[in-house]
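User: Please predict the structure of the protein below. I'd like the answer in structure-token form so I can feed it into my own downstream comparison script.

Assistant: Understood. Taking the following sequence of 213 residues as input:
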Amino acid sequence: MLELQYYSPTRYVRLRRVVAVQGGPSYSILMNENTGRKGSDLLLHPVRIRIVSEFTGSRRSVRDLAQALPDIPQATLYRHVAALVGSGVLELVEERAARGPSERVYRVAPGADRIRPAEIDAMPVAEQRRMFAVFTASLIDSFAAYAGSPAAAPSADGLAYNRAVVNLSAAERLDFGTRFADLVAEVLALPPAGHRRRYHLASCFIPAPEAVG
């Protein structure tokens, strides 16, 4: 069942979703960058989180990334993509014919974004704080790119960030997560079009500490 989600502008990135896979459930590495596993340390960077999120369920070239992330210089994109490829997080799947050098197309390598729940539970608090800091930093990067654009008009553009405290049982929490994911899935199915624009939607589900004694 769905527990915690992160949504990029056009891609659905599972950060903490228990899924049925061979050998038991797993979590996405985007929730758990500093695991000490192959390529994980490289994901402890807001720009790399944004880059990897663009690959969810799809294939991308650096040109595609440059169109989706115009605030990141192309040279920077090439550098980060090369690091992710070298670490095994991304893999080459196609070379498109183009003028000059062929255009390389990548995807997230199978299994490169999965670790088990038990490893999450065993992770030191300091590492969890670091992961969350990187996650929030990636949101700040996206916000800064929008706020710094000359045409930014927050109220007209629909900019919003909210916080609420709710009381849920375990069953109610799982039901809420499932219904929320279904709702977002409806808009994720909408293709890019001239009358649509990209929006970043992020969600955090943080349990309150339980009372002791």
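That's the full token string. Residues 1-39 have pLDDT under 50 and may be disordered.
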